[in-house]
Design a protein that fits this description.
Radius of gyration: 48 Å
Largest sheet: 5 strands, antiparallel
Distance between the termini: 138 Å
Length: about 500
């Protein structure tokens, strides 16, 4: 039996021949290399190697990213040709640093594909050795869709932000507790509160009138239950003024949950004023139709009756007497029509600011009314003090015409000294006109009604009942105010305040 040397026995037990070891190592390296290649080929990123300014390797994902059918369509091309002109200088600098051993951190760039389309990418690069030469391994991620999504989101956010901040409507954003999270400038302007005064507070504490507090609570409850609400109501400014508004309440949803509330307020205060004015005008129209049927037809009926009477056979009355009565009735008709036209003109005519010469205007008014019976008996006392006055000449003339006409018509027949007193004081802001007479006066029960359309406070009246109504409307149209005091048997006084538009 042959003996095996101890050294050979140890070698056979613990080692293998060198060629077998080398073969296994080679197989292991080949297997690892194949795994690496598989990983590189299947990873959804562009992985490439750049050496001496050219692409020497690119994976299949990278080739598809650059619109190539296969990697060979890219390999060998100058890398700078794929860089968007805006980034070429920056990329060249980064690649130089990588060749010097530095790592290039991820950065957004733009590539130009083979088909000419520009894509947004995120690129990082690392030092690499290729065939013994310094090279760069680059990893590229296509972020075009992500970038466009971010840009779309920013665009939407910008559009919303501009809509929120520029909108003339008042907009408030409430949190889930119903407290103010944000308001736009339109809200601050409409209600007079700054954002700092409102943030973290409930609107019921600020803009909801006390009488509507329950409505405000109900509104928040409805909106929080994901109902869109529209109501027409009142809200309160910081200075206490009430506004007529339309309120839109819109819940904000995210993942099927209400995360906040948008409140949009539309100021309809002026619209409501117009609606109220239209109601008044409709009432006036109804009254006017009634008055036309009475005050116009009555004199016409009298005239027709006198004409028929004059044409009757065997009537030996003096026709001159009939003409006198007819003239009186026609005069009433003319006065009524004049007042109606004056009222219509006051409603429709634009205000015309011009210098007012009160002295000439008052004298002309007395001259125009000199035809009235008893006008020559009136003593007039006029005093005018102050600075120049600017306002609407026609409307002020109508105010004086009606006041002076009434003072003449309703003078006290038992007095031998009927008079009209006019004192006008003018400053930079206003004119205060004190008009008084010593006529028959107005009883207390009628005093609150004298400015109503077609109201006649005295049996002595044969006018249209529009005079003081025109006065009140003209004063309001000019932005002024009027107060009246009267006592039966002693006379009536009016205090009229009109703004001075000297600056205009």
């Amino acid at each position: 039996m042959s003996k095996t040397p101890i050294g050979e026995m140890k070698l056979s037990r613990n080692t293998e021949p060198a060629d077998i070891v080398r073969q296994k190592i080679h197989e292991d390296i080949s297997e690892n290399e194949q795994r690496y290649r598989d990983l590189v080929e299947h990873v959804p990123l562009c992985i490439g190697v750049i050496c001496e300014g050219r692409v020497v390797f690119i994976n299949q994902s990278g080739a598809r990213m650059m619109a190539a059918e296969k990697p060979e369509d890219i390999i060998g091309k100058t890398v700078i040709d794929f860089i968007h002109p805006d980034f070429r200088q920056l990329v060249a600098t980064r690649l130089t640093k990588v060749l010097m051993g530095e790592q290039a951190l991820p950065m957004e760039e733009k590539f130009v594909r083979l088909d000419g389309k520009t894509i947004h990418v995120e690129v990082s690069a690392y030092p690499f050795r290729y065939q013994g030469k310094a090279a760069s391994q680059v990893i590229v991620r296509d972020i075009t869709v992500e970038k466009e999504s971010r840009m779309a989101a920013r665009k939407s956010e910008t559009l919303f932000s501009q809509l929120f901040h520029v909108s003339p409507m008042a907009i408030v954003m409430l949190d889930t507790e119903g407290n103010v999270a944000q308001v736009n400038p339109g809200f601050e302007k409409m209600f007079g509160y700054s954002f700092a005064e409102l943030v973290g507070k409930g609107l019921n504490q600020t803009i909801v009138p006390d009488a509507l507090m329950s409505e405000g609570n109900d509104l928040n409850t409805l909106i929080s239950t994901q109902q869109v609400v529209r109501i027409e109501t009142k809200r309160k400014r910081k200075d206490g003024a009430l506004l007529s508004v339309i309120v839109y309440g819109l819940p904000v949803h995210y993942e099927d949950k209400t995360i906040g509330i948008f409140g949009v307020y539309v100021d309809i205060t002026e619209q409501k004023k117009i609606e109220e004015e239209l109601k008044v005008r409709n009432i006036e129209l109804d009254n006017f139709v009634y008055k036309v049927s009475h005050d116009l037809r009555a004199p016409l009926s009298s005239v027709l009756g006198l004409v028929n009477l004059a044409q009757m056979p065997n009537n030996h009355d003096n026709p001159i007497e009939y003409l006198s009565v007819i003239g009186q009735k026609v005069g009433q008709l003319d006065h009524f029509i004049t007042d109606v036209l004056s009222h219509s003109k006051n409603l429709k005519l634009d205000i015309k600011i011009e210098p007012i010469n009160f002295k000439n205007l008052i004298e002309q008014t007395f001259t125009d009314l000199s035809y009235l019976k008893g006008a020559e008996q009136i003593k007039r006392n006029v005093s005018i003090d102050g600075v120049p006055f600017f306002n609407d000449k026609w409307r002020i003339g109508e105010i004086f015409r009606n006041l002076i006409s009434n003072a003449i018509k309703y003078r006290n027949f038992h007095r031998v000294d009927p008079e009209i007193n006019l004192r006008i004081n003018i400053d930079e802001d206003k004119a205060v006109i004190a008009f008084s007479d010593n006529g028959i006066g107005i009883d207390p029960a009628s005093l609150g009604k004298i400015f109503n359309m077609f109201y006649r406070a005295s049996e002595q009246s044969d006018g249209s009942g529009l005079g003081l109504y025109i006065v009140k409307n003209a004063i309001e149209k000019l932005g002024g105010q009027v107060q009246v005091r009267s006592k039966i048997g002693e006379g009536t006084s009016f205090i009229i305040t009109l703004p001075n538009h000297a600056e205009e």
